[in-house]
Amino acid sequence: MTALIQANDLNRSFTVNAGMFKPRQTLHAVNGVTLKLARGDVLGIVGESGCGKSTLARMLLGLTPASSGTVEIDGQDIAKLGRRELTRRVQPVFQDPYSSLNPRKSIVSIVSFPLEVHGIGTAAERRAKAMEMLERVGLPARYADNSPGQLSGGQRQRVAIARALVMKPEIVICDEPTSALDVSVQAQILNLLMELRQEFDLTYVFISHNLAVVQHIATHVAVMYLGRVVETAATETLFKQPRHPYTQALLASVLTPETGLGIPDMGLGLSFPDPLHPPTGCPFHPRCKQRLASCDSLRPPLAALAGDASAQVACHLYAPTSQESILS
Question: In angstroms, rounded to a whole number, what is the distance separating the alpha carbons of residues 122 and 102?
């Protein structure tokens, strides 16, 4: 697969305050992530809160520099691309449409601002392009001179999408773009994103905690845990046959409309892992019911599965030498 965007062994660490009279500690937010995505595909990234999804998104956008590793677009390191060139090719749609838009600007000026920054066209031409894009995302011309405060959440997110697409980028990084919206509005925004993908030949990185949304829109899925990718596969494969125990637990957590089933038990316990003190070996082993004797000391690499080169999993259960008895 020829990659349009590729992450190579990405790492990002932060130094955080551990408390009064305690030394500062290192938090590994993104730890050795390698991913690649072909033109026109949609990569869904899922995982619990705090697993590093949003930090990874900011690194792909060039907003957060990597501690080590690289992000490449068409084989070019984004650290060596100029800021203008990068923003022409990659644009974000953030989670919260209430805070990602300037409340003091009109809708049309927000959408046309990227064109102004890049010196594209006259003021009248920029306004015309912005109006055209607003119409395309479903906002009539009568909203153009309104402020964001006069719009609903779904309308604001349409403005954010129009602003992202007005420069005709190749890649759009969507960081939880529907989580702040009502369920009915979420469906409208997702359908709009899918239509725009086809129309403008877009490539999406779609970050979400909502597995149903990812299943609906993504062509491939990467599952993150404590800053690492623990499984990747085509969407249909991952949802039909999840390999990693953590992926299985995530899918088991989805609520169903069937009566009498109650709240699903993921089997992960009540406590979350401490990212400041990650466990040795496999980072998931303290919560895993299928752990092997080697899991507490040996970290499994993310490796391709026999018979399915497109799927990768970081688990000793799928290593050729994993014949040890399972711990209770």
Answer: 22
- Whole-number Å distance between alpha carbons of 208 and 217: 11
Buried b (16+ CB within 10 A) or exposed e, 267-298: ebeeeebebeebbebbbbbbbbeebbebbeeb
The whole-number pLDDT of residue 324 equals: 40
Residue holding tokens 């399915």? Answer: 308
Residue 323 has pLDDT above 50, yes or no: no
Nearest alpha-carbon partner for 93 in 218, 24, 189:
189
Among 46-50, 90-94, 186-190, 251-255, the least confident range: 251-255
pLDDT confidence of residue 327:
41
Domain ranges of the chain: 5-16+27-318
**C-alpha to C-alpha distance for 327 and 307, rounded to whole angstroms:** 28
Q: Rounded CA gap, 174 and 204, in Å?
A: 7
Q: Are 288 and 300 in contact (CB under 8 A)?
A: no
Q: Measuring CA to CA, which residue among 219, 275, 205, 197 is closest to residue 18?
A: 275
Mean pLDDT over residues 151-169, rounded?
94
**Side-chain half-sphere CA neighbours of 16 within 13 A:** 12
Angle at 65 between CA 63 and CA 68, to 5 degrees: 150
* Residue range 166-200, pLDDT digits in tens: 999 999 999 999 887 888 899 999 999 999 999 99
* The predicted structure's pLDDT at residue 264: 55
Res. 322 pLDDT band, cuts 50 70 90: very low
Give the CATH fold of the 5-16+27-318 domain: Rossmann fold (3.40.50)
Query: What CA–CA distance (Å, rounded) separates 86 from 78?
Result: 7
Q: Do 50 and 228 touch, CB atoms closer than 8 A?
A: no
What three-state secondary structure class fits 84?
Answer: helix
